[in-house]
């Protein structure tokens, strides 16, 4: 009997468009001899299954099931979450599935909630050996009227200003002079569905990388090859991420043996400290002057188009996306504990 997979996609933010593309790619790489895949679309107004003929069937939220004319009530064995932003990366969908005892392929509810909050994540990771953190300020809506004074008092130019709970660089600005700061603050505070919290970090001059980590069927934490990001933009913003030709991504990245050894140990410790499950992706800088690794952020539902970092890294490791996604599902069903 085939395993019934709910492929959850969509979301409540601008990242929904990317989620749909990611879900299409995942579905195209799941073996149809092994899995029955049901795309489940979630938006602010409704949850539904869309069949191959374009017919919508509403999700029964009491037990996360659908009723189909030919097959009756369908329940799912596992959920493959490809839901970027809210409610996929902040722990909401995970908490719901936990209550229904439906296994899923991502981090748990608490880990997802913490990692969605960039400032809280940095606080958890601050004591990891060989990992450095750019100096930062975390502002709530209460601080908005005096945000300019708080930032200029505690941080030195240039800054990165971004929503504390956003993704895909939406609402993010690089500020090189204080006259640009207020506009950047306003943009970050008003980004849709990001909780009216803002994080401001001092800029780190260095090379930028992104690297995936996951748990295999043996319970081992596996670090994928790194990708280096080289963009013609001022920084790796939304356009650089999603408009072809603006960014060069080199996988595997050109890192020395020593650098590879250090970052692998760091990434495994990040995965453990945040109690991660499934696949995650960590973005970081390698500072030019010091050879220090600086944490940027972690993504617990990373993009999964053919051009996305994780598929690039899976291929660079000599795996197929089909085998990789199959392993994620089998680990979720098995519920393995991780081993460093």
From TrEMBL:
Binding sites annotated in the UniProt record for Mg(2+) 1: 283, 297
Organism in which the protein naturally occurs: Candidatus Sphingobacterium stercoripullorum
Cofactor: how and how many bound: Binds 2 magnesium or manganese ions per subunit.
UniProt key word Manganese: yes
Entry's EC annotation: 6.3.2.4
One GO biological process term: cell wall organization
Function: Cell wall formation.
Positions contributing to Mg(2+) 2 binding: 297, 299
Protein name according to UniProt: D-alanine--D-alanine ligase
Keyword Ligase: yes
Entry's Gene Ontology molecular function annotations: ATP binding; D-alanine-D-alanine ligase activity; metal ion binding
Keywords assigned: ATP-binding, Cell shape, Cell wall biogenesis/degradation, Cytoplasm, Ligase, Magnesium, Manganese, Metal-binding, Nucleotide-binding, Peptidoglycan synthesis
Stated family: Belongs to the D-alanine--D-alanine ligase family.
PROSITE patterns in the record: ATP_GRASP (PS50975), DALA_DALA_LIGASE_1 (PS00843), DALA_DALA_LIGASE_2 (PS00844)
């Amino acid at each position: 009997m085939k395993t019934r997979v709910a492929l959850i996609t969509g979301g409540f933010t601008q990242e929904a468009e990317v989620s749909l593309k990611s879900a299409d790619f995942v579905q195209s790489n799941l073996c149809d001899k092994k899995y029955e895949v049901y795309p489940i679309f979630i938006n602010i107004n409704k949850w539904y299954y869309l069949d191959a003929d374009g017919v919508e069937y509403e999700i029964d939220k009491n037990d996360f099931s659908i009723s189909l004319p030919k097959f009756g009530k369908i329940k799912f064995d596992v959920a493959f979450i490809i839901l970027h932003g809210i409610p996929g990366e902040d722990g909401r969908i995970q908490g719901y599935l936990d209550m229904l005892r439906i296994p899923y392929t991502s981090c748990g509810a608490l880990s997802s909630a913490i990692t969605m909050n960039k400032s809280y994540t940095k606080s958890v990771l601050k004591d990891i050996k060989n990992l450095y953190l750019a100096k930062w300020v975390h502002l709530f809506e209460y601080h908005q009227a005096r945000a300019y004074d708080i930032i200029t008092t505690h941080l030195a130019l240039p800054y990165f200003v971004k929503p504390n709970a956003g993704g895909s660089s939406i609402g993010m600005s690089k500020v090189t002079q204080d006259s640009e700061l207020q506009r950047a603050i306003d943009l970050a505070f008003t980004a849709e569905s990001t909780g009216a919290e803002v994080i401001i970090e001092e800029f780190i001059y260095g090379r930028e990388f992104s690297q995936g980590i996951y748990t295999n069927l043996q319970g081992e934490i596996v670090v994928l090859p790194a990708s280096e990001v080289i963009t013609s933009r001022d920084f790796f913003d939304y356009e650089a991420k999603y408009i072809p030709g603006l960014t060069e991504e080199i996988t595997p990245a050109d890192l020395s043996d020593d650098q590879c050894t250090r970052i692998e140990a760091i990434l495994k410790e990040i995965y453990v400290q945040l109690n991660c499950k499934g696949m995650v992706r960590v973005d970081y800088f390698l500072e030019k002057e010091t050879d220090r690794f600086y944490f940027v952020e972690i993504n617990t539902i990373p993009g999964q188009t053919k051009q996305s970092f994780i598929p690039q890294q899976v291929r660079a490791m000599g795996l197929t996306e089909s085998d990789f996604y199959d392993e994620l599902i089998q680990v979720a069903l098995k519920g393995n504990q991780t081993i460093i």
